[in-house]
Amino acid sequence: DVLGQILKELRAQGALLPLSETCKQLRHKCLPLLFAAVELEVWVPTDDSITLIIHFTDTDVFDVDFFPRDFAASSLQRMLSYTDDPLLCGVPSDRLLATALRSMPHLCTVTLVFPDSPDEGGLPWSLLQAILTLPGLNSFSCDGCLLDPRPAPPPVPLTTSSPLRSFQYSPDIYRHRSRTFQREEDALVLIMQAYHSSLEHLALSSGKASLQSMASLSWPSLRELRLDGELCDSASPMLLVLGNMPKLRVLHLNFALPHGVTCRPIWPKDLPILACPWPDLERLQISFPRVDDELYTRLNPALRSLSLRYFPHLITHSWQRLPRFWQFLPSPCRNFFRILYSSRLPELEELELEYHDDGHEESLLQYLGVAFPKLRSLKILRYRQPGMAEFHIVSLYDGWFDPSRRLHEPCRRHGDVI
User: Which of 336, 331, 291 lies closest to 310 in space, CA to CA?
Assistant: First the structure.
């Protein structure tokens, strides 16, 4: 369609709105592009902005970003706003928002963002159900808010034919397990049960119940998985929990390690599995890597990005004075040398390491230049005892790496922190 291509070019140049004001026919043609992405800031439940969008979009909205600005109180000592329940956000009106979204038959993406949220309120299950059952929805994201944390009966299961491909749930990544809720876990389990066969991208703050549910389901389409939160004691190794994801290409396990919990290998050496369940894995991030983990010897040789780090970073804890809910145990440099020596990753392009300098750093970095000929990005967070002799990483890089393949990022270093 020539006219459609012309309108897309005008939109890219910022000239589509003036054209849409010339006549009704052009206005009708321009509407799908003018309102292909809508961002709403809603201050009170009775805000008319959603209603106005219904009238002016002509039902051709494809992406909606919803930003409630006034959140429910973070404690009982504070006056509640638009709600009589301190565990719920009162700004999103179930009826108004559900009506608005259902009037947009081409809607495919909904994003809920709570930028000022203390992360102690939540969205009611009835609102989530109204959003997730939209017929054309393929992407949903909830950032900065909990999923219905009320101490109520489990939510009603979802009944939908929507081919949801992306689900992202990102509450406060620094929250302690004392601020998790059973109903929140129940909601995540129901969502996974409803969409596990169609999801291609999944990001969530996981708990024990959601991990158990994940292990019991098949994930034939999942290509990207990002898990954060606190590591839970689990009877099953993580390889078995995530073993039903044959098309996985991106895996981020960004767990914090609570006191009293031991970090286990993702792939224990005595596990009777011969081949890696993720043959096409391209990007891997692991917090608290272990030397005795069989995973590193079985990784896809075509892996392009590897991050062996800790969460939270020890230096992040120092800067932000995070509560000491978690263990901060940077491994010595020699452990990372053993991990990388056991792996065979000739296609590796990006590498991130976080370690305690035990005097083996020079050997490690020298090995990197030999073992990973295609390395283009190297990020290092190292922690050193006061008084240790300064070691100039960049000068080592200049001498050992082939000048024809200069690193895009020779080194990012946070040093001398204990």
Answer: 331
